């Protein structure tokens, strides 16, 4: 089945994470910020993460291809899922990034059309849909 979903390179939403750092590492970061190398702690940490992702870019690209992951943002609307149901097919959702199941998708429609969900990143869906698919979310 052809992919019927939209890809956006830079979604507006971000995911918040929490990390624990030692006091010396934190002090080093604060020193770099104070000396003007970075605008704040978050800027330093984002830059460090991006540098590591760039450093391992070839390995990551091969892994995405091998696992046949959709990269970026995938939005699944009620109309998309109704088309899948009409075609008597099911989806195996595999996303690296953000997968969104629309607010107007019913739990019944989701169970009828989504066989499995594997998201590396974040899944946004109504609570009732997540509950209906809990045995299918990896």
In brief:
The protein has six helices and three strands. The chain has helices at residues 23-34, 41-55, 57-67, 78-86, 107-113, 127-132, and strands spanning 70-76, 91-101, 114-124.
What would you say this structure looks like, in words?
- This protein has 138 residues and is α/β, with parallel strands linked by helices.
- It is 43% helix and 21% strand.
- The protein has a 3-stranded parallel beta sheet with strand order 1-2-3, covered by helices on one side.
- Helix 4 (78-86) packs across helix 5 (107-113).
- The longest helix has 15 residues, at 41-55.
- It starts with 22 loop residues before the first helix and ends in a 6-residue tail after the last helix.
Topology:
Layout: H1 23-34, H2 41-55, H3 57-67, E1 70-76, H4 78-86, E2 91-101, H5 107-113, E3 114-124, H6 127-132
Parallel strand pairs: 1-2, 2-3
Helix pairs in contact: 4-5
The number of helical runs is 6
The Rg value, from CA coordinates, equals: 19 Å
Instruction: Give the termini separation.
Output: 22 Å
Strand and helix order: HHHEHEHEH
Largest sheet, strands/sense/barrel: 3 strands, parallel
Low-confidence stretches: 1-11
- The helix content, as a percent range, equals 40-55%
Question: Which of globular, elongated, flat, extended, rod-shaped describes the shape?
Answer: elongated
Strand order of the largest sheet: 1-2-3
Per DSSP E runs of 2 or more residues, the count of β-strands stands at: 3
Structural class of the secondary elements? alpha/beta
Strand % is 15-25%
